Amino acid sequence: MHYKAPPTQGLRLLKEQLSFTNAQMAHIFGVATGRQFHKYLSDEDKREMGFHVLMYGMANLQLMRGPITNVEQLHALGREIGAIIELEDGEPQP
């Protein structure tokens, strides 16, 4: 699998669309504090979001909208905010 974390602007846009604080975003993505989530948004103290953190957040986001029927829903949500998620040939598909 090839993965590239969502860009800062994608995460900022999602935060704005949800009208969430950094603390609320931290809860959705399973990170300890709003300050820790802020590092994903910062241009100076930049931290790239790991795949597992992104998928946890996308699972919570999907559950806010309705049921999760397959993992591709989560991949699609991640791609909507700018993450690159490419499964390689031979990898199990949902």
Describe the structure.
- By secondary structure, this protein is mainly α.
- The protein has one domain.
- The chain contains 5 helices and 2 strands; from the N terminus they run βαααααβ.
- The chain has helices spanning 8-18, 22-29, 34-41, 51-65, 71-80; strands spanning 2-4, 84-86.
- A two-stranded antiparallel ribbon has the order 1-2.
Features of the shown structure:
mainly alpha, two-stranded antiparallel ribbon, single chain, 94 residues, globular
Question: Could you give a quick summary of the protein structure above?
Answer:
With 94 residues, the protein is mainly alpha-helical.
Strand and helix map with partners:
Blueprint: E1 2-4, H1 8-18, H2 22-29, H3 34-41, H4 51-65, H5 71-80, E2 84-86
Antiparallel strand pairs: 1-2
Shape: globular
Query: What average pLDDT do the residues reach?
Result: 94
Major β-sheet profile: 2 strands, antiparallel
Helix vs. strand class: mainly alpha
Number of domains: 1
Main-sheet strand order equals 1-2
**Number of DSSP strands?**
2
Helix amount, in percent? 55-70%
**Strand content bin:** 5-15%
Helix-strand pattern: EHHHHHE
Total number of helices:
5
* Distance from first to last alpha carbon: 14 Å
Radius of gyration equals 13 Å
Low-pLDDT parts are: none
